[in-house]
Fold:
Amino acid sequence: MATSNTKLTKEQKQKLNALKMACPEIQFFYFPNEFATVAIQEEFPNSKMVKVSISYCSLDEQKYRAKVGEYHAINKMVYSGEFIKVPRPHGRNLEVLAENFAYVA
Structure:
C-alpha cells in the first residue's frame, strides 16, 4: 500500500490564513486519533444553530496534520457549502459536539 504525506503548499497556507482572518468565528477541533478536524461556526451570533464541516485524513496518510485538516474543513464550509446545520447543544459545549462528529466515520 502506498503512503501519502500531504502538506499544504505556500498558496494553500496563505489562503488558510486569509480565511481564518476573514472568519474568526469559525472554531476548529482536532482529533488526531480519529484523523479528523472539525470546523464549527454559529449561524449568527447567539444562534441556536451551528454549521459543522469535517475533514478526515486519507487512510494512507503517514501523519495527522492539523493545518491540512483546517484547510479542507474551512474550504468546505466557506466555498463549497459542504456543511450541515445542527442545533447547538445545551450548555453550548461545542467540543462535545465536534467530538461526536469526529467519531462518526
Observations:
- Residues 66-80 form the longest helix (15 residues).
- The helical segments are 10-22, 66-80, 94-102.
- The mean pLDDT is 90.
- The beta strands are 27-31, 36-42, 49-56, 84-87.
